[in-house]
Design a protein that fits this description.
Elements: H1 3-8, E1 11-12, E2 18-19, H2 34-37, H3 41-45, H4 49-61, E3 66-74, E4 77-87, E5 90-97, E6 100-107, E7 110-115, H5 117-123, E8 136-137, H6 140-147, H7 155-162, E9 169-177, E10 180-187, E11 197-202, E12 209-214, E13 236-242, E14 257-258
Parallel strand pairs: 8-14
Antiparallel strand pairs: 1-2, 3-4, 3-13, 4-5, 5-6, 6-7, 7-8, 9-10, 10-11, 11-12, 12-13
Helix pairs in contact: 4-7
């Protein structure tokens, strides 16, 4: 279960680029029929953990947008995250951490960043304080470098990664996430590339994963891929997913300040 750790891995740096590898891993599944994608609650709740994960993968492959939000701890640093994915070249991220807050908008027309004074002081030094609380448009080379990483957030990549590097899986019952019933699958971790946690999968409509929780560190090793760098990690926390196929509109900010570079 490298899902949460992989989503959290990208981080905005002083050069205003989100860096790091990707998202999660997976069971190979055939294209779903409508009946299997939007199966009844009783049917999915009684299936095996592997079948539930497979249903979540198929649902994700059919999605073309979503919102994920939550709070995690990474390398002892607490991080608040909200990410809206509107397509391969449309993304909006908001990060809150001890050293400040930052927002990023990616569109075909460019990469835009806004951070508060505390963030720029911690990551860019005094020379960047003039950018505090202002939208800035980064130069084309920065925008291109960031956009190349957006494939990691593609729902199809999330689906591919959803089933990889698991420990023993068990179905532990049902719960409610944001008013929707879910079936809970627990990953015990304990094998290379895995970490313990839970997946909460929707019981009504498409079997989207509505909540993902990591409760322990990722073990070093496992098959190295876009979903797992093999180095392990200590990301823990909970992410909630919503607004599948209906993400908010992502638009360019008005009157951004164009800059040549934000590198220190």
């Amino acid at each position: 279960m490298t899902w949460l750790a992989s989503l959290a891995r990208p981080r905005l740096r002083a050069a205003a680029l989100l860096t790091g590898p990707a998202v999660v891993a997976g069971l190979a599944c055939s294209s779903p029929s409508i009946a299997r994608t939007a199966r009844g609650a009783a049917g999915l709740a009684s299936e095996s953990p592997a079948q539930i994960i497979g249903a979540a993968q198929r649902a994700l492959r059919s999605a073309h947008g979503y919102v994920v939000a939550g709070r995690i701890t990474q390398s002892r640093q607490k991080l608040g995250l909200r990410l809206a994915y509107g397509g391969p070249t449309r993304l909006e991220i908001q990060l809150t951490q001890r050293t400040g807050t930052v927002a990023v908008i990616v569109l075909p027309g460019g990469l835009f960043v806004r951070a508060n004074r505390a963030y720029w002081r911690a990551h860019g030094g005094t020379s960047t304080l003039r950018f505090a609380n202002r939208w800035i448009k980064l130069p084309a080379h920065d925008s291109a470098a960031f956009t190349r990483q957006l494939g990691h957030f593609n729902p199809r990549t999330l689906a591919t990664c959803l089933g990889e590097n698991h420990g023993p899986l068990t179905r532990t019952g049902t719960a409610v996430v944001n008013g929707r019933r879910v079936v809970v699958v627990r990953d015990a971790g304990g094998v290379p590339g895995s970490n313990p946690g839970t997946y909460d999968v929707a019981l009504q409509g498409p079997a989207y994963p509505l909540r993902v929780t990591a409760t322990g560190p990722t073990r070093r090793g496992g098959r190295v891929s876009v979903c797992n760098d093999g180095r392990g990690g200590n990301t823990e926390g909970t992410l909630t997913l919503s607004r599948f196929n209906h993400p908010p509109a992502i638009t360019a900010p008005t009157h951004p300040l164009s800059v040549g570079s934000t590198a220190p």
